[in-house]
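Service request form, structural biology core

Requester: graduate student, group of Dr. S.
Request type: structure prediction, single chain
Budget code: on file
Notes: please return the result as C-alpha coordinates.

Sequence provided:
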Amino acid sequence: MIRRFLATSICLSTFIAPTVGVFAEEPAEPTAFVLGEIAKMKVGKHDWPQWGGSGYRNNTPEGVNIPTSWDVDSGENILWSAPLGSQTYGNPVVANGKVYVGTNNHNAYLSRFPKTIDLGALLCFDEKTGKFLWQHSNPKLPTGRVHDWPDQGICSSVYAEGDKVWYVTSRGEVVCLDAEGFNDGENDGPYKAEDNENKNEADIIWKYDMMGALGVSQHNMCNCSLTCAGDVLFVNTSNGVDESHANIPAPSAASFFAIDRNTGKVLWSDKSPGLNILHGQWSSPAYGVFNGQAQVIFGAGDGWMYSFDPAGDGAGNSKLIWKFDCNPKESKYSVSGRSERNHLIGTPVIYNGNIYIGVGEDPEHGEGNGHLWCVDPNKRGDVSPTLAMDSAGKEVVDKGDGSRRLQAIFPEQGEKAVPNPNSAVVWHYTGDDTNKNGEIDFEEEMHRTCGTVAIKDDLLFIADFSGIFHCLDAKTGKSHWNYDMFAAAWGSPLIVEGNVYIGDEDGDVAIFKLSAEMEQVGEVSCGNSVYSTPVVANNVLFIANKSTLYAIGSKKDGE
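Core staff response, request fulfilled:
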Protein backbone atom coordinates (compact mmCIF):
# COMPACT_ATOMS: atom_id res chain seq x y z
CA MET A 1 0.00 0.00 0.00
CA ILE A 2 1.43 3.36 -1.01
CA ARG A 3 0.78 6.30 1.26
CA ARG A 4 0.64 9.96 0.27
CA PHE A 5 2.79 12.19 2.48
CA LEU A 6 4.83 12.44 1.56
CA ALA A 7 34.90 24.80 19.58
CA THR A 8 35.81 26.85 21.51
CA SER A 9 36.68 25.28 24.91
CA ILE A 10 36.73 27.40 28.05
CA CYS A 11 39.94 26.93 30.00
CA LEU A 12 39.59 27.36 33.77
CA SER A 13 42.32 27.85 36.29
CA THR A 14 40.79 25.41 38.74
CA PHE A 15 38.89 22.19 38.25
CA ILE A 16 36.77 20.36 40.79
CA ALA A 17 36.11 16.73 39.96
CA PRO A 18 32.44 16.35 39.05
CA THR A 19 30.13 13.91 40.71
CA VAL A 20 28.01 11.43 38.79
CA GLY A 21 24.62 11.18 40.44
CA VAL A 22 22.93 7.85 41.04
CA PHE A 23 19.18 7.85 40.49
CA ALA A 24 16.86 5.67 42.45
CA GLU A 25 15.91 2.29 41.03
CA GLU A 26 12.71 2.83 39.07
CA PRO A 27 9.38 1.64 40.50
CA ALA A 28 6.60 0.43 38.21
CA GLU A 29 4.64 3.70 38.45
CA PRO A 30 6.41 6.15 36.13
CA THR A 31 4.69 9.40 37.15
CA ALA A 32 5.55 8.92 40.82
CA PHE A 33 9.11 8.10 39.83
CA VAL A 34 9.65 11.16 37.65
CA LEU A 35 8.12 13.41 40.32
CA GLY A 36 10.58 11.94 42.80
CA GLU A 37 13.51 12.66 40.49
CA ILE A 38 12.31 16.22 39.79
CA ALA A 39 11.95 16.79 43.55
CA LYS A 40 15.73 16.27 43.89
CA MET A 41 16.42 19.07 41.40
CA LYS A 42 16.49 22.83 41.89
CA VAL A 43 13.20 23.29 40.04
CA GLY A 44 9.50 23.42 40.89
CA LYS A 45 8.01 20.10 41.93
CA HIS A 46 5.68 20.01 38.91
CA ASP A 47 8.10 21.53 36.39
CA TRP A 48 9.25 19.57 33.33
CA PRO A 49 12.97 20.45 33.25
CA GLN A 50 14.20 18.25 30.39
CA TRP A 51 12.98 16.15 27.50
CA GLY A 52 11.04 13.29 29.09
CA GLY A 53 11.14 14.86 32.55
CA SER A 54 14.04 12.73 33.79
CA GLY A 55 16.85 10.56 32.46
CA TYR A 56 14.31 7.74 32.12
CA ARG A 57 12.72 9.84 29.32
CA ASN A 58 9.13 8.67 29.87
CA ASN A 59 6.72 11.53 29.06
CA THR A 60 4.25 10.84 31.87
CA PRO A 61 3.92 14.01 34.00
CA GLU A 62 1.34 14.68 36.66
CA GLY A 63 -1.50 17.04 35.81
CA VAL A 64 -5.07 17.86 36.78
CA ASN A 65 -7.84 19.44 34.71
CA ILE A 66 -5.75 19.17 31.55
CA PRO A 67 -8.03 20.17 28.65
CA THR A 68 -9.01 17.69 25.98
CA SER A 69 -10.49 20.45 23.85
CA TRP A 70 -9.29 23.92 22.91
CA ASP A 71 -9.55 26.33 20.01
CA VAL A 72 -6.55 28.28 18.79
CA ASP A 73 -8.82 30.67 16.84
CA SER A 74 -11.46 31.52 19.45
CA GLY A 75 -9.07 31.24 22.39
CA GLU A 76 -11.04 28.52 24.19
CA ASN A 77 -8.76 27.15 26.93
CA ILE A 78 -5.80 29.08 25.52
CA LEU A 79 -4.09 30.76 28.48
CA TRP A 80 -1.58 32.48 26.22
CA SER A 81 0.23 32.03 22.94
CA ALA A 82 3.60 33.27 21.71
CA PRO A 83 4.84 33.44 18.12
CA LEU A 84 7.82 31.28 17.23
CA GLY A 85 9.78 31.02 13.99
CA SER A 86 8.55 29.39 10.79
CA GLN A 87 9.85 25.92 11.73
CA THR A 88 9.83 24.45 15.25
CA TYR A 89 11.03 20.97 16.15
CA GLY A 90 12.27 21.43 19.71
CA ASN A 91 10.09 20.25 22.59
CA PRO A 92 9.14 22.79 25.27
CA VAL A 93 10.88 22.60 28.63
CA VAL A 94 9.46 24.30 31.72
CA ALA A 95 11.53 25.18 34.78
CA ASN A 96 11.50 27.82 37.51
CA GLY A 97 8.88 30.04 35.93
CA LYS A 98 10.26 29.94 32.39
CA VAL A 99 9.46 28.07 29.18
CA TYR A 100 12.23 27.28 26.69
CA VAL A 101 11.74 26.24 23.09
CA GLY A 102 14.00 26.04 20.04
CA THR A 103 13.00 27.44 16.65
CA ASN A 104 14.36 29.68 13.87
CA ASN A 105 14.50 33.47 13.56
CA HIS A 106 11.44 34.06 11.38
CA ASN A 107 9.66 36.03 14.10
CA ALA A 108 12.73 38.25 14.68
CA TYR A 109 12.42 38.99 18.39
CA LEU A 110 15.74 40.85 18.31
CA SER A 111 15.92 44.03 16.27
CA ARG A 112 19.53 43.39 15.27
CA PHE A 113 18.47 40.19 13.53
CA PRO A 114 15.61 40.83 11.07
CA LYS A 115 13.75 37.76 9.90
CA THR A 116 15.70 37.71 6.65
CA ILE A 117 18.68 36.53 8.72
CA ASP A 118 18.51 32.79 9.29
CA LEU A 119 19.44 31.78 12.84
CA GLY A 120 19.00 28.95 15.26
CA ALA A 121 17.06 30.63 18.07
CA LEU A 122 16.48 29.40 21.61
CA LEU A 123 13.61 31.44 23.05
CA CYS A 124 12.77 31.95 26.72
CA PHE A 125 9.26 33.00 27.82
CA ASP A 126 7.59 33.75 31.14
CA GLU A 127 5.64 30.64 32.12
CA LYS A 128 2.57 32.48 33.45
CA THR A 129 2.14 35.19 30.81
CA GLY A 130 4.04 34.09 27.71
CA LYS A 131 6.06 37.30 27.77
CA PHE A 132 9.25 37.03 25.71
CA LEU A 133 12.29 37.28 28.00
CA TRP A 134 15.41 36.55 25.96
CA GLN A 135 16.88 34.76 22.95
CA HIS A 136 20.09 32.86 22.35
CA SER A 137 21.07 33.41 18.70
CA ASN A 138 23.11 30.99 16.60
CA PRO A 139 24.27 32.29 13.20
CA LYS A 140 24.37 29.73 10.41
CA LEU A 141 27.61 27.83 9.91
CA PRO A 142 29.61 28.99 6.87
CA THR A 143 29.86 25.40 5.60
CA GLY A 144 26.15 25.49 4.71
CA ARG A 145 23.49 22.85 4.66
CA VAL A 146 25.78 19.84 5.03
CA HIS A 147 26.25 20.95 8.66
CA ASP A 148 23.44 23.45 9.28
CA TRP A 149 20.32 23.02 7.14
CA PRO A 150 18.49 26.26 6.28
CA ASP A 151 15.53 27.37 8.41
CA GLN A 152 15.57 24.34 10.73
CA GLY A 153 16.52 26.36 13.79
CA ILE A 154 17.22 24.70 17.13
CA CYS A 155 15.93 21.12 17.14
CA SER A 156 17.09 20.10 20.63
CA SER A 157 15.47 20.68 24.02
CA VAL A 158 17.24 22.24 26.97
CA TYR A 159 18.19 20.78 30.32
CA ALA A 160 17.29 23.38 32.98
CA GLU A 161 18.08 23.43 36.67
CA GLY A 162 18.52 26.20 39.22
CA ASP A 163 19.71 29.39 37.57
CA LYS A 164 21.26 27.70 34.51
CA VAL A 165 20.24 26.18 31.20
CA TRP A 166 22.29 23.79 29.05
CA TYR A 167 21.62 22.78 25.45
CA VAL A 168 23.10 21.70 22.13
CA THR A 169 23.08 24.42 19.48
CA SER A 170 22.67 24.22 15.72
CA ARG A 171 26.37 25.18 15.45
CA GLY A 172 27.54 21.98 17.12
CA GLU A 173 28.17 23.52 20.52
CA VAL A 174 27.18 22.63 24.05
CA VAL A 175 26.40 25.86 25.89
CA CYS A 176 25.61 26.80 29.44
CA LEU A 177 23.40 29.90 29.81
CA ASP A 178 22.21 32.05 32.68
CA ALA A 179 18.47 31.38 33.02
CA GLU A 180 17.92 35.12 33.55
CA GLY A 181 19.69 36.20 30.38
CA PHE A 182 20.93 39.74 30.91
CA ASN A 183 17.76 40.70 32.80
CA ASP A 184 19.74 40.42 36.04
CA GLY A 185 22.20 43.08 34.86
CA GLU A 186 25.17 40.75 35.19
CA ASN A 187 27.50 39.13 32.68
CA ASP A 188 28.23 35.77 34.25
CA GLY A 189 31.36 34.01 33.12
CA PRO A 190 33.90 32.73 32.48
CA TYR A 191 32.61 33.47 28.95
CA LYS A 192 32.20 37.24 28.58
CA ALA A 193 32.53 37.75 24.82
CA GLU A 194 28.84 38.20 23.99
CA ASP A 195 28.08 40.69 21.20
CA ASN A 196 26.15 42.86 23.65
CA GLU A 197 24.42 42.77 27.01
CA ASN A 198 20.90 43.76 26.00
CA LYS A 199 18.33 42.50 28.47
CA ASN A 200 16.56 40.41 25.82
CA GLU A 201 19.68 38.45 24.89
CA ALA A 202 21.29 35.34 26.35
CA ASP A 203 24.11 35.45 28.88
CA ILE A 204 26.58 32.69 28.02
CA ILE A 205 28.43 31.15 30.96
CA TRP A 206 30.52 28.69 28.94
CA LYS A 207 30.42 26.96 25.60
CA TYR A 208 32.15 23.97 24.09
CA ASP A 209 32.65 23.66 20.33
CA MET A 210 32.28 20.00 19.35
CA MET A 211 33.29 20.64 15.75
CA GLY A 212 36.44 22.54 16.68
CA ALA A 213 37.56 20.61 19.75
CA LEU A 214 36.45 17.08 18.89
CA GLY A 215 36.58 17.27 15.09
CA VAL A 216 32.89 16.40 14.76
CA SER A 217 31.22 16.74 11.35
CA GLN A 218 27.50 16.85 12.07
CA HIS A 219 25.20 15.91 9.21
CA ASN A 220 22.62 18.60 8.30
CA MET A 221 21.83 19.48 11.90
CA CYS A 222 23.16 19.06 15.42
CA ASN A 223 20.46 17.67 17.65
CA CYS A 224 20.68 16.17 21.11
CA SER A 225 18.49 16.85 24.13
CA LEU A 226 20.88 16.57 27.05
CA THR A 227 20.35 14.58 30.19
CA CYS A 228 22.34 14.88 33.39
CA ALA A 229 23.42 12.88 36.42
CA GLY A 230 24.95 14.88 39.26
CA ASP A 231 27.40 17.30 37.64
CA VAL A 232 27.71 15.36 34.39
CA LEU A 233 25.89 16.03 31.12
CA PHE A 234 25.68 13.37 28.42
CA VAL A 235 25.84 14.34 24.75
CA ASN A 236 25.32 12.77 21.33
CA THR A 237 27.44 14.81 18.88
CA SER A 238 25.42 14.18 15.65
CA ASN A 239 28.61 13.11 13.85
CA GLY A 240 27.58 11.84 10.42
CA VAL A 241 28.08 11.53 6.67
CA ASP A 242 28.99 14.28 4.19
CA GLU A 243 26.77 15.63 1.41
CA SER A 244 27.47 12.57 -0.77
CA HIS A 245 25.88 10.34 1.92
CA ALA A 246 28.65 7.84 1.15
CA ASN A 247 31.59 9.17 3.17
CA ILE A 248 32.08 9.73 6.89
CA PRO A 249 34.50 12.67 7.02
CA ALA A 250 35.30 12.32 10.74
CA PRO A 251 35.10 8.62 11.72
CA SER A 252 37.53 9.13 14.60
CA ALA A 253 35.55 12.00 16.10
CA ALA A 254 33.48 11.36 19.19
CA SER A 255 29.88 10.26 18.76
CA PHE A 256 29.12 10.36 22.48
CA PHE A 257 30.72 12.09 25.43
CA ALA A 258 30.30 13.23 29.01
CA ILE A 259 31.00 16.82 30.04
CA ASP A 260 31.19 18.61 33.39
CA ARG A 261 28.17 20.90 33.50
CA ASN A 262 29.95 23.42 35.74
CA THR A 263 33.11 23.88 33.69
CA GLY A 264 32.56 22.57 30.16
CA LYS A 265 35.40 20.06 30.61
CA VAL A 266 35.06 16.80 28.66
CA LEU A 267 35.34 13.80 30.99
CA TRP A 268 35.25 10.93 28.51
CA SER A 269 34.28 10.27 24.92
CA ASP A 270 33.47 7.37 22.61
CA LYS A 271 33.64 6.90 18.83
CA SER A 272 32.15 3.40 18.55
CA PRO A 273 30.02 3.93 15.39
CA GLY A 274 33.11 5.11 13.47
CA LEU A 275 32.95 4.24 9.77
CA ASN A 276 29.62 2.45 10.22
CA ILE A 277 27.53 5.59 10.64
CA LEU A 278 24.68 5.29 8.17
CA HIS A 279 23.54 8.90 7.98
CA GLY A 280 23.19 11.20 10.98
CA GLN A 281 23.14 10.72 14.76
CA TRP A 282 20.22 12.62 16.25
CA SER A 283 19.08 10.47 19.15
CA SER A 284 19.26 11.71 22.75
CA PRO A 285 20.69 9.72 25.66
CA ALA A 286 18.85 8.14 28.56
CA TYR A 287 20.22 7.46 32.04
CA GLY A 288 19.10 4.86 34.55
CA VAL A 289 20.14 2.46 37.28
CA PHE A 290 19.69 -1.29 36.92
CA ASN A 291 20.48 -3.67 39.77
CA GLY A 292 22.77 -1.06 41.25
CA GLN A 293 24.65 -0.32 38.00
CA ALA A 294 24.20 3.18 36.59
CA GLN A 295 24.05 3.25 32.79
CA VAL A 296 23.92 5.97 30.15
CA ILE A 297 22.30 4.69 26.96
CA PHE A 298 22.84 6.13 23.50
CA GLY A 299 21.03 5.44 20.24
CA ALA A 300 23.62 5.56 17.46
CA GLY A 301 23.88 6.32 13.79
CA ASP A 302 25.01 2.78 12.99
CA GLY A 303 21.69 1.36 14.21
CA TRP A 304 23.15 0.07 17.48
CA MET A 305 22.18 1.03 21.01
CA TYR A 306 25.15 1.42 23.37
CA SER A 307 25.25 1.40 27.17
CA PHE A 308 28.22 2.92 29.04
CA ASP A 309 29.25 3.36 32.62
CA PRO A 310 28.47 7.06 33.24
CA ALA A 311 31.80 7.48 35.06
CA GLY A 312 33.86 6.30 32.08
CA ASP A 313 37.06 4.31 32.59
CA GLY A 314 38.78 7.02 34.61
CA ALA A 315 41.27 7.78 31.82
CA GLY A 316 39.09 9.85 29.49
CA ASN A 317 37.63 6.89 27.63
CA SER A 318 34.25 5.21 27.66
CA LYS A 319 33.54 1.98 29.49
CA LEU A 320 31.12 -0.17 27.51
CA ILE A 321 28.56 -2.19 29.41
CA TRP A 322 26.62 -3.66 26.48
CA LYS A 323 25.65 -3.01 22.87
CA PHE A 324 22.59 -4.05 20.88
CA ASP A 325 22.10 -4.16 17.09
CA CYS A 326 18.60 -2.88 16.32
CA ASN A 327 18.69 -4.03 12.67
CA PRO A 328 18.42 -7.53 11.19
CA LYS A 329 21.90 -8.60 10.07
CA GLU A 330 20.77 -9.21 6.49
CA SER A 331 19.09 -5.79 6.07
CA LYS A 332 20.61 -3.35 3.57
CA TYR A 333 20.93 0.42 3.88
CA SER A 334 20.26 2.92 1.13
CA VAL A 335 19.34 6.59 1.21
CA SER A 336 17.07 6.10 -1.81
CA GLY A 337 13.97 3.95 -1.94
CA ARG A 338 12.67 1.78 0.86
CA SER A 339 15.86 0.93 2.72
CA GLU A 340 15.55 -2.07 5.02
CA ARG A 341 18.23 -0.83 7.42
CA ASN A 342 17.70 2.11 9.77
CA HIS A 343 19.44 4.09 12.46
CA LEU A 344 18.12 5.52 15.73
CA ILE A 345 16.45 8.92 16.03
CA GLY A 346 14.05 8.38 18.93
CA THR A 347 15.24 8.38 22.53
CA PRO A 348 15.63 5.21 24.61
CA VAL A 349 12.97 5.03 27.32
CA ILE A 350 13.35 3.17 30.60
CA TYR A 351 10.29 1.54 32.13
CA ASN A 352 9.98 -1.16 34.77
CA GLY A 353 13.62 -2.18 34.39
CA ASN A 354 13.66 -2.49 30.59
CA ILE A 355 14.65 -0.22 27.70
CA TYR A 356 12.43 0.58 24.72
CA ILE A 357 13.43 2.06 21.36
CA GLY A 358 12.27 2.10 17.73
CA VAL A 359 14.40 2.47 14.60
CA GLY A 360 14.01 5.39 12.19
CA GLU A 361 15.43 7.49 9.41
CA ASP A 362 15.66 11.10 8.25
CA PRO A 363 12.11 12.02 7.14
CA GLU A 364 13.63 13.40 3.92
CA HIS A 365 14.29 9.78 2.95
CA GLY A 366 10.66 8.73 3.23
CA GLU A 367 8.78 5.91 4.85
CA GLY A 368 10.04 2.39 5.45
CA ASN A 369 9.90 -0.70 7.62
CA GLY A 370 10.45 -0.40 11.34
CA HIS A 371 11.42 -2.36 14.42
CA LEU A 372 10.41 -1.66 18.00
CA TRP A 373 12.50 -3.31 20.71
CA CYS A 374 12.24 -4.06 24.41
CA VAL A 375 15.69 -4.85 25.82
CA ASP A 376 16.91 -6.18 29.17
CA PRO A 377 19.81 -3.94 30.29
CA ASN A 378 21.26 -6.42 32.79
CA LYS A 379 23.36 -8.47 30.39
CA ARG A 380 26.88 -7.59 29.26
CA GLY A 381 28.78 -7.47 25.99
CA ASP A 382 27.10 -7.96 22.61
CA VAL A 383 23.46 -8.57 23.54
CA SER A 384 22.07 -8.30 19.99
CA PRO A 385 19.30 -10.67 18.86
CA THR A 386 21.62 -12.49 16.45
CA LEU A 387 25.28 -12.91 15.60
CA ALA A 388 26.89 -12.87 12.14
CA MET A 389 28.51 -16.15 11.12
CA ASP A 390 30.61 -17.01 8.07
CA SER A 391 30.25 -20.12 5.90
CA ALA A 392 32.61 -22.04 8.21
CA GLY A 393 30.49 -21.30 11.27
CA LYS A 394 32.90 -18.73 12.71
CA GLU A 395 31.68 -15.41 14.02
CA VAL A 396 32.18 -12.56 11.56
CA VAL A 397 34.21 -9.80 13.13
CA ASP A 398 33.44 -6.28 11.99
CA LYS A 399 36.87 -4.73 11.43
CA GLY A 400 35.49 -1.20 11.72
CA ASP A 401 36.71 -0.31 8.23
CA GLY A 402 33.23 0.44 6.91
CA SER A 403 33.05 -2.66 4.73
CA ARG A 404 29.96 -3.81 6.65
CA ARG A 405 28.41 -0.39 7.07
CA LEU A 406 25.51 -1.01 4.66
CA GLN A 407 24.95 -4.68 5.45
CA ALA A 408 26.25 -6.80 8.33
CA ILE A 409 26.30 -10.13 6.50
CA PHE A 410 26.66 -11.21 2.87
CA PRO A 411 24.38 -14.22 2.27
CA GLU A 412 25.83 -14.73 -1.22
CA GLN A 413 29.12 -15.59 0.52
CA GLY A 414 27.47 -18.13 2.77
CA GLU A 415 27.21 -15.81 5.75
CA LYS A 416 24.15 -15.95 7.94
CA ALA A 417 22.65 -14.69 11.16
CA VAL A 418 22.26 -17.12 14.05
CA PRO A 419 20.53 -16.63 17.42
CA ASN A 420 22.71 -14.97 20.02
CA PRO A 421 22.78 -17.00 23.25
CA ASN A 422 23.55 -13.76 25.08
CA SER A 423 20.62 -11.88 23.54
CA ALA A 424 18.91 -9.28 25.73
CA VAL A 425 15.71 -9.17 23.66
CA VAL A 426 12.58 -9.17 25.78
CA TRP A 427 10.35 -8.69 22.74
CA HIS A 428 10.52 -7.39 19.18
CA TYR A 429 7.58 -5.77 17.38
CA THR A 430 7.27 -5.33 13.62
CA GLY A 431 3.49 -5.63 13.41
CA ASP A 432 0.58 -7.74 14.58
CA ASP A 433 -2.65 -9.07 13.12
CA THR A 434 -4.74 -6.97 15.47
CA ASN A 435 -7.98 -7.30 13.50
CA LYS A 436 -7.52 -11.09 13.13
CA ASN A 437 -8.02 -11.12 9.34
CA GLY A 438 -5.04 -13.42 8.77
CA GLU A 439 -2.84 -10.64 7.37
CA ILE A 440 -0.62 -7.86 8.67
CA ASP A 441 -2.25 -4.79 7.17
CA PHE A 442 -0.38 -1.55 6.55
CA GLU A 443 -2.10 -0.01 9.58
CA GLU A 444 -0.89 -2.93 11.71
CA GLU A 445 2.79 -2.66 10.73
CA MET A 446 5.50 -0.88 12.67
CA HIS A 447 7.16 1.62 10.35
CA ARG A 448 10.14 3.91 10.75
CA THR A 449 9.74 6.35 13.59
CA CYS A 450 11.29 9.64 14.65
CA GLY A 451 9.42 9.31 17.90
CA THR A 452 9.90 7.97 21.39
CA VAL A 453 7.61 5.67 23.34
CA ALA A 454 5.57 6.72 26.36
CA ILE A 455 4.46 4.03 28.81
CA LYS A 456 2.10 3.87 31.76
CA ASP A 457 0.02 1.09 33.33
CA ASP A 458 1.95 -1.34 31.10
CA LEU A 459 0.47 0.37 28.02
CA LEU A 460 3.05 1.52 25.49
CA PHE A 461 2.27 4.18 22.87
CA ILE A 462 4.33 5.22 19.86
CA ALA A 463 3.63 6.98 16.57
CA ASP A 464 5.48 6.01 13.41
CA PHE A 465 6.38 8.24 10.48
CA SER A 466 3.72 6.64 8.28
CA GLY A 467 1.10 8.10 10.60
CA ILE A 468 0.12 4.97 12.53
CA PHE A 469 -0.34 5.34 16.28
CA HIS A 470 0.32 2.07 18.11
CA CYS A 471 -0.80 0.86 21.54
CA LEU A 472 1.06 -2.23 22.81
CA ASP A 473 1.39 -4.29 25.94
CA ALA A 474 4.70 -3.06 27.37
CA LYS A 475 5.41 -6.45 28.96
CA THR A 476 4.80 -8.68 25.93
CA GLY A 477 4.94 -6.44 22.84
CA LYS A 478 1.47 -7.62 21.84
CA SER A 479 -0.53 -5.02 19.94
CA HIS A 480 -3.74 -3.78 21.54
CA TRP A 481 -4.80 -1.36 18.81
CA ASN A 482 -3.65 0.92 16.01
CA TYR A 483 -4.98 4.24 14.76
CA ASP A 484 -4.34 5.81 11.36
CA MET A 485 -3.78 9.56 11.70
CA PHE A 486 -3.61 9.99 7.88
CA ALA A 487 -0.65 12.31 8.38
CA ALA A 488 3.00 11.80 9.21
CA ALA A 489 3.99 11.92 12.86
CA TRP A 490 7.36 13.38 13.90
CA GLY A 491 6.78 13.70 17.63
CA SER A 492 6.04 11.47 20.61
CA PRO A 493 3.07 10.79 22.91
CA LEU A 494 2.17 12.53 26.15
CA ILE A 495 0.38 10.53 28.85
CA VAL A 496 -1.35 12.60 31.52
CA GLU A 497 -4.48 12.36 33.68
CA GLY A 498 -5.65 9.13 32.04
CA ASN A 499 -5.34 10.43 28.48
CA VAL A 500 -2.80 10.10 25.68
CA TYR A 501 -1.98 13.01 23.31
CA ILE A 502 -0.17 12.79 19.94
CA GLY A 503 0.40 15.48 17.30
CA ASP A 504 0.82 15.14 13.54
CA GLU A 505 2.05 16.98 10.46
CA ASP A 506 -1.46 18.15 9.55
CA GLY A 507 -1.54 20.11 12.80
CA ASP A 508 -4.00 17.90 14.65
CA VAL A 509 -3.58 16.53 18.16
CA ALA A 510 -5.42 13.26 18.65
CA ILE A 511 -6.42 12.34 22.21
CA PHE A 512 -7.23 8.84 23.48
CA LYS A 513 -8.11 7.23 26.77
CA LEU A 514 -5.23 5.46 28.47
CA SER A 515 -6.73 2.08 27.72
CA ALA A 516 -6.08 -1.26 26.04
CA GLU A 517 -9.33 -0.64 24.14
CA MET A 518 -9.19 2.21 21.66
CA GLU A 519 -11.38 5.09 22.79
CA GLN A 520 -10.74 8.42 21.10
CA VAL A 521 -11.55 11.42 23.25
CA GLY A 522 -11.12 13.97 20.51
CA GLU A 523 -8.98 15.54 17.82
CA VAL A 524 -8.06 19.20 18.04
CA SER A 525 -6.47 21.38 15.36
CA CYS A 526 -3.46 23.46 16.35
CA GLY A 527 -3.53 25.46 13.12
CA ASN A 528 -0.43 24.06 11.48
CA SER A 529 2.07 21.19 11.76
CA VAL A 530 2.88 19.82 15.20
CA TYR A 531 6.38 18.40 14.81
CA SER A 532 7.17 18.52 18.52
CA THR A 533 5.79 16.67 21.54
CA PRO A 534 3.14 18.02 23.96
CA VAL A 535 4.27 18.40 27.57
CA VAL A 536 2.55 19.28 30.84
CA ALA A 537 3.97 21.33 33.68
CA ASN A 538 2.14 22.86 36.65
CA ASN A 539 -1.23 21.73 35.26
CA VAL A 540 -0.73 23.50 31.94
CA LEU A 541 -0.45 21.76 28.57
CA PHE A 542 2.27 23.24 26.34
CA ILE A 543 2.16 22.55 22.61
CA ALA A 544 4.40 24.10 19.97
CA ASN A 545 3.19 23.91 16.42
CA LYS A 546 5.68 24.98 13.78
CA SER A 547 5.11 28.70 14.37
CA THR A 548 3.34 29.23 17.73
CA LEU A 549 3.74 28.11 21.33
CA TYR A 550 0.45 27.56 23.16
CA ALA A 551 -0.15 27.35 26.90
CA ILE A 552 -3.41 25.44 27.27
CA GLY A 553 -5.35 25.15 30.51
CA SER A 554 -8.74 25.37 32.14
CA LYS A 555 -9.56 29.04 32.55
CA LYS A 556 -11.06 30.39 35.74
CA ASP A 557 -14.40 32.20 35.69
CA GLY A 558 -14.04 35.62 34.10
CA GLU A 559 -10.86 34.81 32.20
